[in-house]
Amino acid sequence: MRNLTQLLFALFCLCLPAMLHAQDKDDSKYLAGAVPEVDGKVVFTKEFSIPGMSQDEIYNRIYGWMEARLKQNENISRIVFSDKEKGQIVGTGDEWIVFSSTALSLDRTKILYQLTATCQPEKCTLEVEKIRFNYREGKEKYTAEEWITDKYALNKAQTKLVRGLAKWRRKTVDFVDELALGATEALSAATANAPAEEKKEEKTVEKSVINSGPIVIAPKKQVTIESAQSQPAANNNVISGTESNTGAGMPNAQVIVPSVQVKKPAALVPANKAQQQAYKEVAPDQLSADAIQTGAGRLVIVIGEDPFNMTMMTANSGGSLGKVNGKPVIFSILSPDQPYEQIEKAENYIIRFYPTGQTEPTVILECKKLPSPATMEGMPRTYVGEILKAMVK
Questions:
Q1: pLDDT surpasses 80 at 12
Q2: Domain range annotation of the chain
Protein backbone atom coordinates (compact mmCIF):
# COMPACT_ATOMS: atom_id res chain seq x y z
CA MET A 1 0.00 0.00 0.00
CA ARG A 2 2.87 2.31 0.84
CA ASN A 3 4.51 1.63 -2.54
CA LEU A 4 1.24 2.45 -4.32
CA THR A 5 0.95 5.75 -2.45
CA GLN A 6 4.52 6.66 -3.38
CA LEU A 7 3.82 5.80 -7.02
CA LEU A 8 0.69 7.97 -7.11
CA PHE A 9 2.56 10.84 -5.47
CA ALA A 10 5.36 10.58 -8.04
CA LEU A 11 2.84 10.64 -10.90
CA PHE A 12 1.15 13.69 -9.40
CA CYS A 13 4.48 15.52 -9.21
CA LEU A 14 5.20 14.69 -12.85
CA CYS A 15 1.80 15.97 -13.99
CA LEU A 16 1.76 19.09 -11.80
CA PRO A 17 3.86 21.31 -14.12
CA ALA A 18 1.60 20.52 -17.07
CA MET A 19 -1.49 21.21 -14.95
CA LEU A 20 -0.11 24.54 -13.79
CA HIS A 21 0.84 25.45 -17.36
CA ALA A 22 -2.68 24.71 -18.54
CA GLN A 23 -4.12 26.86 -15.77
CA ASP A 24 -1.81 29.75 -16.71
CA LYS A 25 -2.88 29.78 -20.35
CA ASP A 26 -4.71 33.01 -21.16
CA ASP A 27 -7.74 32.25 -23.32
CA SER A 28 -9.42 35.63 -22.86
CA LYS A 29 -9.51 36.44 -26.55
CA TYR A 30 -11.24 33.13 -27.34
CA LEU A 31 -14.06 33.45 -24.80
CA ALA A 32 -17.60 34.87 -25.14
CA GLY A 33 -18.14 36.74 -28.40
CA ALA A 34 -14.90 35.62 -30.03
CA VAL A 35 -16.94 33.66 -32.60
CA PRO A 36 -19.72 36.07 -33.71
CA GLU A 37 -23.07 34.85 -35.02
CA VAL A 38 -25.58 36.51 -37.36
CA ASP A 39 -29.05 34.90 -37.48
CA GLY A 40 -27.59 31.70 -36.05
CA LYS A 41 -24.71 31.56 -38.55
CA VAL A 42 -21.03 32.14 -37.77
CA VAL A 43 -19.89 35.26 -39.62
CA PHE A 44 -16.57 36.99 -38.87
CA THR A 45 -16.67 40.61 -40.05
CA LYS A 46 -13.86 43.18 -40.26
CA GLU A 47 -14.41 46.77 -41.37
CA PHE A 48 -11.71 48.99 -42.87
CA SER A 49 -11.89 52.75 -43.35
CA ILE A 50 -9.41 54.23 -45.85
CA PRO A 51 -9.92 58.02 -46.09
CA GLY A 52 -9.18 59.43 -49.53
CA MET A 53 -8.99 56.09 -51.36
CA SER A 54 -11.35 55.44 -54.27
CA GLN A 55 -13.53 52.36 -54.60
CA ASP A 56 -11.55 51.22 -57.65
CA GLU A 57 -8.24 51.43 -55.78
CA ILE A 58 -9.62 49.54 -52.78
CA TYR A 59 -11.12 46.92 -55.11
CA ASN A 60 -7.86 46.44 -57.01
CA ARG A 61 -5.80 46.03 -53.84
CA ILE A 62 -8.18 43.60 -52.17
CA TYR A 63 -8.66 41.61 -55.37
CA GLY A 64 -4.89 41.27 -55.79
CA TRP A 65 -4.46 40.20 -52.18
CA MET A 66 -7.32 37.67 -52.27
CA GLU A 67 -6.12 36.15 -55.53
CA ALA A 68 -2.55 35.73 -54.25
CA ARG A 69 -3.67 34.56 -50.80
CA LEU A 70 -5.98 31.85 -52.14
CA LYS A 71 -3.49 30.68 -54.77
CA GLN A 72 -0.91 29.96 -52.06
CA ASN A 73 -2.90 26.90 -51.04
CA GLU A 74 -2.28 25.15 -54.39
CA ASN A 75 -5.72 23.56 -54.34
CA ILE A 76 -9.28 24.54 -55.20
CA SER A 77 -9.18 27.84 -53.29
CA ARG A 78 -9.93 30.66 -55.72
CA ILE A 79 -11.99 33.76 -56.47
CA VAL A 80 -15.38 32.57 -57.73
CA PHE A 81 -17.18 35.86 -58.32
CA SER A 82 -16.26 39.50 -58.82
CA ASP A 83 -18.08 42.66 -59.87
CA LYS A 84 -15.87 45.74 -59.97
CA GLU A 85 -18.76 48.14 -60.53
CA LYS A 86 -20.52 46.91 -57.39
CA GLY A 87 -17.23 46.42 -55.55
CA GLN A 88 -17.89 42.78 -54.68
CA ILE A 89 -15.37 39.94 -54.55
CA VAL A 90 -16.16 36.41 -53.37
CA GLY A 91 -13.63 33.63 -52.88
CA THR A 92 -13.71 30.09 -51.50
CA GLY A 93 -10.96 28.66 -49.34
CA ASP A 94 -9.90 25.06 -48.82
CA GLU A 95 -6.76 24.66 -46.73
CA TRP A 96 -5.21 23.05 -43.68
CA ILE A 97 -5.22 24.14 -40.05
CA VAL A 98 -2.51 22.35 -38.06
CA PHE A 99 -3.24 21.70 -34.38
CA SER A 100 0.07 20.00 -33.62
CA SER A 101 2.93 18.51 -35.57
CA THR A 102 5.71 16.23 -34.35
CA ALA A 103 8.06 13.73 -35.91
CA LEU A 104 5.63 10.95 -34.99
CA SER A 105 2.21 12.53 -35.49
CA LEU A 106 0.32 15.25 -37.35
CA ASP A 107 -2.99 16.54 -36.03
CA ARG A 108 -4.74 18.78 -38.55
CA THR A 109 -8.07 19.54 -40.19
CA LYS A 110 -9.24 20.93 -43.50
CA ILE A 111 -11.06 24.25 -43.16
CA LEU A 112 -13.44 25.29 -45.94
CA TYR A 113 -14.80 28.82 -45.94
CA GLN A 114 -16.21 31.68 -48.00
CA LEU A 115 -14.35 35.00 -48.07
CA THR A 116 -16.33 38.05 -49.21
CA ALA A 117 -15.08 41.61 -49.68
CA THR A 118 -17.43 44.56 -50.29
CA CYS A 119 -15.59 47.64 -51.51
CA GLN A 120 -16.97 51.19 -51.42
CA PRO A 121 -15.40 54.65 -51.61
CA GLU A 122 -13.09 55.00 -48.59
CA LYS A 123 -14.15 51.75 -46.93
CA CYS A 124 -14.15 47.97 -47.22
CA THR A 125 -15.86 45.13 -45.34
CA LEU A 126 -14.37 41.65 -45.14
CA GLU A 127 -16.52 38.66 -44.14
CA VAL A 128 -15.50 35.05 -43.42
CA GLU A 129 -18.45 32.67 -43.26
CA LYS A 130 -19.81 29.22 -44.21
CA ILE A 131 -16.96 27.62 -42.27
CA ARG A 132 -16.74 23.82 -42.31
CA PHE A 133 -14.19 21.34 -41.06
CA ASN A 134 -13.14 18.01 -42.62
CA TYR A 135 -11.22 16.06 -39.98
CA ARG A 136 -9.32 12.78 -40.25
CA GLU A 137 -9.17 12.93 -44.05
CA GLY A 138 -12.89 13.73 -44.29
CA LYS A 139 -14.11 10.92 -42.03
CA GLU A 140 -15.43 13.51 -39.56
CA LYS A 141 -17.23 16.62 -40.82
CA TYR A 142 -18.43 19.54 -38.73
CA THR A 143 -19.81 23.04 -39.27
CA ALA A 144 -18.68 26.07 -37.32
CA GLU A 145 -22.20 26.50 -35.95
CA GLU A 146 -22.14 23.10 -34.25
CA TRP A 147 -18.51 23.04 -33.23
CA ILE A 148 -16.94 26.40 -32.22
CA THR A 149 -19.81 28.69 -31.12
CA ASP A 150 -20.26 29.95 -27.55
CA LYS A 151 -23.04 27.42 -27.02
CA TYR A 152 -20.84 24.38 -27.62
CA ALA A 153 -17.23 25.50 -27.13
CA LEU A 154 -17.62 27.31 -23.77
CA ASN A 155 -18.68 26.09 -20.34
CA LYS A 156 -22.02 27.24 -18.91
CA ALA A 157 -20.42 30.20 -17.13
CA GLN A 158 -18.60 31.11 -20.37
CA THR A 159 -15.35 31.44 -18.45
CA LYS A 160 -13.46 28.50 -19.97
CA LEU A 161 -13.14 26.64 -23.26
CA VAL A 162 -14.54 23.13 -23.41
CA ARG A 163 -11.54 20.85 -23.47
CA GLY A 164 -12.36 18.81 -26.58
CA LEU A 165 -13.30 21.85 -28.69
CA ALA A 166 -10.72 24.34 -27.41
CA LYS A 167 -8.14 23.71 -30.13
CA TRP A 168 -10.77 24.17 -32.88
CA ARG A 169 -11.97 27.51 -31.54
CA ARG A 170 -8.46 28.87 -30.89
CA LYS A 171 -7.10 27.89 -34.28
CA THR A 172 -10.15 29.21 -36.16
CA VAL A 173 -10.01 32.62 -34.48
CA ASP A 174 -6.24 32.79 -35.14
CA PHE A 175 -6.83 31.79 -38.77
CA VAL A 176 -9.36 34.59 -39.31
CA ASP A 177 -7.03 37.05 -37.55
CA GLU A 178 -4.32 36.13 -40.05
CA LEU A 179 -6.70 36.90 -42.92
CA ALA A 180 -7.59 40.29 -41.39
CA LEU A 181 -3.91 41.21 -40.96
CA GLY A 182 -3.25 40.23 -44.58
CA ALA A 183 -6.05 42.51 -45.80
CA THR A 184 -4.72 45.31 -43.59
CA GLU A 185 -1.28 45.06 -45.15
CA ALA A 186 -2.81 44.94 -48.66
CA LEU A 187 -4.58 48.21 -47.97
CA SER A 188 -1.28 49.69 -46.75
CA ALA A 189 -2.15 50.05 -43.08
CA ALA A 190 -0.39 52.84 -41.27
CA THR A 191 -2.68 53.92 -38.45
CA ALA A 192 -5.68 52.30 -36.88
CA ASN A 193 -8.62 53.69 -34.96
CA ALA A 194 -8.90 52.75 -31.31
CA PRO A 195 -12.15 51.11 -30.29
CA ALA A 196 -14.38 52.81 -27.74
CA GLU A 197 -12.75 53.06 -24.34
CA GLU A 198 -13.97 50.72 -21.65
CA LYS A 199 -13.64 50.90 -17.90
CA LYS A 200 -10.20 49.84 -16.82
CA GLU A 201 -9.97 46.60 -14.91
CA GLU A 202 -7.12 45.02 -13.06
CA LYS A 203 -6.72 42.49 -15.85
CA THR A 204 -6.78 43.56 -19.49
CA VAL A 205 -9.08 41.42 -21.62
CA GLU A 206 -7.28 40.46 -24.78
CA LYS A 207 -9.23 40.63 -28.04
CA SER A 208 -8.55 39.05 -31.39
CA VAL A 209 -7.78 41.30 -34.37
CA ILE A 210 -11.07 40.38 -36.06
CA ASN A 211 -13.04 41.46 -32.97
CA SER A 212 -11.08 44.59 -31.98
CA GLY A 213 -13.16 47.17 -33.87
CA PRO A 214 -12.77 48.86 -37.26
CA ILE A 215 -9.34 49.66 -38.64
CA VAL A 216 -8.75 53.13 -40.09
CA ILE A 217 -6.01 52.99 -42.73
CA ALA A 218 -3.80 55.78 -44.03
CA PRO A 219 -2.71 54.77 -47.56
CA LYS A 220 1.03 54.62 -48.11
CA LYS A 221 2.71 56.89 -50.62
CA GLN A 222 4.00 55.54 -53.91
CA VAL A 223 7.72 54.88 -53.62
CA THR A 224 10.51 53.81 -55.97
CA ILE A 225 12.40 50.74 -54.78
CA GLU A 226 16.12 51.03 -55.40
CA SER A 227 18.90 48.56 -54.76
CA ALA A 228 20.78 49.24 -51.54
CA GLN A 229 24.29 50.56 -52.09
CA SER A 230 27.32 49.33 -50.20
CA GLN A 231 27.33 51.13 -46.90
CA PRO A 232 30.35 53.31 -46.02
CA ALA A 233 32.33 52.69 -42.88
CA ALA A 234 31.16 54.69 -39.86
CA ASN A 235 33.27 56.13 -37.07
CA ASN A 236 35.71 54.02 -35.07
CA ASN A 237 33.18 53.25 -32.32
CA VAL A 238 31.14 50.71 -34.26
CA ILE A 239 30.68 46.99 -34.61
CA SER A 240 29.61 45.65 -37.98
CA GLY A 241 27.06 42.85 -38.33
CA THR A 242 25.54 41.23 -41.44
CA GLU A 243 21.77 41.24 -41.95
CA SER A 244 19.76 39.30 -44.52
CA ASN A 245 17.49 41.45 -46.68
CA THR A 246 16.34 39.18 -49.47
CA GLY A 247 12.65 39.97 -49.03
CA ALA A 248 12.88 43.57 -50.25
CA GLY A 249 14.76 42.81 -53.46
CA MET A 250 18.03 44.19 -52.07
CA PRO A 251 21.37 42.43 -51.48
CA ASN A 252 22.71 41.68 -48.02
CA ALA A 253 23.83 44.86 -46.29
CA GLN A 254 26.08 45.76 -43.37
CA VAL A 255 24.32 47.23 -40.35
CA ILE A 256 26.20 49.46 -37.94
CA VAL A 257 25.67 48.69 -34.26
CA PRO A 258 26.52 51.58 -31.87
CA SER A 259 29.14 50.65 -29.30
CA VAL A 260 27.84 52.68 -26.37
CA GLN A 261 27.87 51.64 -22.74
CA VAL A 262 24.43 52.65 -21.45
CA LYS A 263 21.86 51.15 -19.14
CA LYS A 264 19.01 51.49 -21.62
CA PRO A 265 18.90 49.17 -24.64
CA ALA A 266 21.94 50.14 -26.71
CA ALA A 267 20.00 49.69 -29.92
CA LEU A 268 17.73 52.60 -29.04
CA VAL A 269 20.49 55.17 -28.47
CA PRO A 270 22.32 56.91 -31.36
CA ALA A 271 26.09 56.49 -31.40
CA ASN A 272 27.24 60.04 -30.61
CA LYS A 273 26.01 63.45 -29.47
CA ALA A 274 25.56 64.79 -32.99
CA GLN A 275 23.38 61.83 -33.87
CA GLN A 276 21.50 62.11 -30.57
CA GLN A 277 20.64 65.72 -31.35
CA ALA A 278 19.35 64.65 -34.76
CA TYR A 279 16.72 62.43 -33.11
CA LYS A 280 13.76 63.62 -31.11
CA GLU A 281 11.40 61.61 -28.95
CA VAL A 282 7.71 61.65 -29.89
CA ALA A 283 4.68 60.10 -28.25
CA PRO A 284 4.04 56.67 -29.81
CA ASP A 285 0.50 57.63 -30.84
CA GLN A 286 1.82 60.79 -32.53
CA LEU A 287 4.03 58.98 -35.06
CA SER A 288 3.49 60.12 -38.64
CA ALA A 289 1.34 57.77 -40.71
CA ASP A 290 4.08 57.43 -43.35
CA ALA A 291 7.02 57.18 -40.94
CA ILE A 292 7.46 53.55 -41.97
CA GLN A 293 6.63 52.35 -45.48
CA THR A 294 6.95 48.82 -46.82
CA GLY A 295 9.08 48.83 -49.96
CA ALA A 296 10.81 52.09 -49.06
CA GLY A 297 13.52 50.61 -46.87
CA ARG A 298 14.45 47.94 -44.33
CA LEU A 299 12.69 47.13 -41.07
CA VAL A 300 15.35 45.77 -38.71
CA ILE A 301 14.51 43.95 -35.47
CA VAL A 302 17.12 44.19 -32.69
CA ILE A 303 16.88 41.77 -29.75
CA GLY A 304 19.05 42.15 -26.65
CA GLU A 305 20.51 45.01 -24.61
CA ASP A 306 24.22 44.19 -24.81
CA PRO A 307 25.72 45.80 -27.96
CA PHE A 308 28.28 43.00 -28.08
CA ASN A 309 25.70 40.23 -27.87
CA MET A 310 22.53 41.13 -29.70
CA THR A 311 20.47 39.43 -32.40
CA MET A 312 19.60 41.47 -35.48
CA MET A 313 17.27 40.46 -38.29
CA THR A 314 15.41 42.13 -41.13
CA ALA A 315 11.65 41.73 -41.44
CA ASN A 316 11.88 40.54 -45.03
CA SER A 317 8.16 40.97 -45.70
CA GLY A 318 8.05 44.49 -44.25
CA GLY A 319 5.71 45.97 -41.69
CA SER A 320 3.50 48.90 -40.82
CA LEU A 321 2.25 51.09 -37.97
CA GLY A 322 -1.20 50.67 -36.47
CA LYS A 323 -3.24 50.29 -33.31
CA VAL A 324 -4.60 47.19 -31.60
CA ASN A 325 -7.09 47.59 -28.76
CA GLY A 326 -6.17 51.27 -28.60
CA LYS A 327 -2.42 50.65 -28.25
CA PRO A 328 0.01 52.09 -30.84
CA VAL A 329 1.77 49.10 -32.38
CA ILE A 330 4.03 48.08 -35.21
CA PHE A 331 3.43 44.96 -37.29
CA SER A 332 6.65 43.18 -38.30
CA ILE A 333 6.30 40.45 -40.92
CA LEU A 334 8.89 37.71 -41.43
CA SER A 335 8.96 35.66 -44.60
CA PRO A 336 8.21 31.91 -44.18
CA ASP A 337 11.85 30.91 -44.64
CA GLN A 338 13.26 33.23 -41.96
CA PRO A 339 14.37 31.89 -38.55
CA TYR A 340 12.07 33.21 -35.82
CA GLU A 341 13.19 31.42 -32.65
CA GLN A 342 14.84 34.52 -31.13
CA ILE A 343 11.87 36.83 -31.54
CA GLU A 344 9.58 34.09 -30.23
CA LYS A 345 11.59 34.08 -26.99
CA ALA A 346 11.89 37.87 -26.72
CA GLU A 347 9.62 39.97 -24.52
CA ASN A 348 10.98 43.33 -25.68
CA TYR A 349 12.87 44.39 -28.78
CA ILE A 350 13.88 47.41 -30.86
CA ILE A 351 12.66 48.26 -34.35
CA ARG A 352 14.82 50.38 -36.66
CA PHE A 353 13.62 51.65 -40.02
CA TYR A 354 16.35 52.36 -42.61
CA PRO A 355 15.05 54.18 -45.72
CA THR A 356 16.43 52.82 -48.98
CA GLY A 357 20.06 53.83 -49.52
CA GLN A 358 20.55 55.23 -46.00
CA THR A 359 22.93 53.87 -43.37
CA GLU A 360 21.19 55.41 -40.36
CA PRO A 361 17.62 54.71 -39.22
CA THR A 362 15.04 57.49 -39.37
CA VAL A 363 12.75 55.77 -36.86
CA ILE A 364 13.74 53.83 -33.73
CA LEU A 365 11.02 52.15 -31.67
CA GLU A 366 11.24 50.42 -28.30
CA CYS A 367 8.60 47.68 -28.33
CA LYS A 368 6.94 45.18 -26.05
CA LYS A 369 5.81 42.03 -27.83
CA LEU A 370 2.06 41.42 -27.76
CA PRO A 371 0.29 38.11 -28.42
CA SER A 372 0.07 37.48 -32.16
CA PRO A 373 -2.20 35.14 -34.11
CA ALA A 374 -0.84 31.67 -34.82
CA THR A 375 0.67 31.34 -38.28
CA MET A 376 -0.25 28.70 -40.83
CA GLU A 377 2.64 26.53 -42.02
CA GLY A 378 4.37 28.09 -45.02
CA MET A 379 2.80 31.54 -44.42
CA PRO A 380 4.55 34.79 -43.35
CA ARG A 381 4.78 35.33 -39.59
CA THR A 382 3.35 38.57 -38.21
CA TYR A 383 4.58 39.91 -34.87
CA VAL A 384 2.82 42.75 -33.05
CA GLY A 385 4.84 45.07 -30.82
CA GLU A 386 3.35 47.72 -28.54
CA ILE A 387 5.39 50.91 -29.02
CA LEU A 388 6.71 52.05 -25.63
CA LYS A 389 9.09 54.75 -26.86
CA ALA A 390 9.67 56.36 -30.25
CA MET A 391 12.57 58.38 -31.63
CA VAL A 392 12.47 59.95 -35.11
CA LYS A 393 14.98 61.82 -37.22
A1: no
A2: 25-196+206-216, 238-392
Find all residues with CB under 8 Å of 163, minimum gap 6, and list them: none
Calpha distance 390→268 (Å, rounded): 9
CA distance linking residue 43 with residue 134, whole number of Å = 19
Given the candidates 3.40.190.10, 3.40.50.300, 3.40.30.10, 3.30.530.80, the CATH classification of the domain at 25-196+206-216 is 3.30.530.80
> What band does 14 get if pLDDT is binned at 50, 70 and 90?
low
Number of helices (H), then strands (E), belonging to the chain: the values are 6, 18
Q: What is the CATH number of domain 238-392?
A: 2.30.110
On the CB side of 383, how many CA atoms lie within 13 Å of its CA? 30
Cα–Cα distance for residue pair 379/72, rounded to 1 Å: 9
* Interatomic CA distance for residues 159 and 249, integer angstroms: 48
pLDDT surpasses 50 at 251 = no
pLDDT tens, 133-176? 999 888 899 999 999 999 999 999 999 999 889 999 999 999 99
Task: Give the DSSP H or E segment for 181.
Answer: helix 166-186
Tens-digit pLDDT profile for residues 185-229: 888 644 333 333 444 444 555 667 777 777 777 555 443 333 333
Q: What are phi and psi of 383, to 5 degrees?
A: -115, 140
